[in-house]
Amino acid sequence: MASLKPIILYGHAGGPNPWKVAMVAEELGVPYEHKLLDFTELKKEPFITKNPNGRVPAIEDPNTGITLWESGAIVEYLVETYDKDKKISFTAGTPDYFHAKQWLHFQMSGQGPYFGQAVWFKVYHPEKIQSAQDRYINEIRRVSGVINNVLEKQDWLAGGKYSYADVAFVPWYEAVPRIAADQIDLEKEFPKLYNWLNRIKSRPAVAKVLKDKAEVNAAAQKK
Ligand SMILES: N[C@@H](CCC(=O)N[C@@H](CS)C(=O)NCC(=O)O)C(=O)O
């Protein structure tokens, strides 16, 4: 996609959601410029006008003029606008198309918020509330069980091939060792899921984004 101007992707070094968008853009060969913001910049101008919710990711696509936020909506925009060959998506209106959306909605409503709350109560909440920690760690386990069971019967979540629905889950799983290394052993408890994550992470596009993420995190730690 040599003729495209780079999409501006507003992200953050540590937060998982923008990296999901980067992975999809890399898979599609859509050029992007990843602007890493500090959390202190998100609730004020100029960012708050781009995303009234004051969170990342958001994108600005100079090729179409759109500004968009919410990572799931951005992923859908990217595949519907740029995945003409259906490399990681499906023909509109087919069952596979809707199944991929179903998994993306599950990722957005069932994985992201619960894994996010697990981080909050394990790492950031000023008081240690065991019941809240247990609730969200158990949700990580429950969501992982759902995926693992499905992957007992198939290699990929939707349509018999790797798609955006699979890669969407990767960034939050990358956070699991930090949240629950002492409580959840993905390899042992959810071997199909563990193997699936490794297959996705070994794809060149995903490996590149994970390398970028590791580099910016290492740089952020040195500051
Ligand atoms: N549902 C939103 C969640 C966005 C979100 O929570 N982003 C985090 C970083 S991964 C953030 O901006 N946190 C800053 C804050 O909460 O102030 C999405 O998927 O885009």
Structure description:
This protein has 223 residues and is α+β, with helices and mostly antiparallel strands. The chain has 2 domains: 7-88, Glutaredoxin, CATH 3.40.30.10; 95-204, Glutathione S-transferase Yfyf (Class Pi), Chain A, domain 2 (Up-down Bundle), CATH 1.20.1050.10. 58% of the residues lie in helices and 8% in strands. It contains 11 helices and 4 strands, in the order E-H-E-H-E-E-H-H-H-H-H-H-H-H-H. It has helices at residues 16-28, 47-50, 71-82, 95-124, 130-151, 164-167, 170-174, 176-180, 186-189, 191-201, 204-222, and strands at residues 7-11, 32-36, 58-61, 66-69. The chain has a 4-stranded mixed sheet, with helices on one face. Helix 1 links the parallel strand 1 (7-11) and strand 2 (32-36). Helix 1 (16-28) packs parallel to helix 3, helix 1 (16-28) runs antiparallel to helix 11 (204-222) and helix 5 (130-151) crosses helix 10. The mean pLDDT is 96. The chain binds glutathione. Residues 12, 15-17, 39, 42, 55-57, 70-71, 112 line the site of glutathione (GSH).
